[in-house]
Amino acid sequence: MSSNKYRYQSEIFFEEMDAIGLLHHPRYLYHAERAQQNFFQHLLGVKDFNSERDEDIYVVVKSIQLEMKVAVRNPGPIFIDLDLGKIRAGSVVMNFTVLSPDEKITYANGSRTIVKLSAKNHQPTIWTDAFRKKLDDWS
């Protein structure tokens, strides 16, 4: 597990709640994915997500693990903390924790393993040297 955490503030909206007033379970993953996108933009020093310009963000999800702890019951802000797990030649495990704004409640935690693909043939490929260094430096 990485010693560095990346914090992203996300916003829960009313339409994300289910019929009994809880954040619908797949929405936790949407917010984790937004955090990962923001983290990659941070590492690359860019303000948008453009896989034609930045080949290292042409990724797919290989696996997802989510453990629910306490349900989010109201719209409003949440924090997503990310840290890097295992970094491989062309993949990385992104661990995440979903927290209340006061950090007193852990709503959920999990991990997403992503794999970099070649935009030319859509097959797994390795990170660029520059991006791999940024991943290694962060962890």
Task: Summarize the structure in words.
- The protein is an alpha+beta fold.
- It has one domain (6-138): Roll (Thiol Ester Dehydrase, Chain A), CATH 3.10.129.10.
- It has 2 helices and 5 strands.
- It has helices at 26-44, 129-138, and strands at residues 6-12, 59-68, 76-87, 91-99, 106-116.
- Strands 1-3-4-5-2 form a 5-stranded antiparallel beta sheet.
- Strand 4 and strand 5 (106-116) form a beta hairpin.
- The model has no long low-confidence stretch (mean pLDDT 94).
Keywords for this entry:
139 residues, alpha+beta, Thiol Ester Dehydrase, Chain A, 5-stranded antiparallel β-sheet, 2 helices, 5 strands, elongated
The gist of it:
With 139 residues, the chain is an alpha+beta fold. It has a single domain (6-138), classed as Hotdog Thioesterase (Thiol Ester Dehydrase, Chain A), CATH 3.10.129. The chain has helices at 26-44, 129-138; strands spanning 6-12, 59-68, 76-87, 91-99, 106-116.
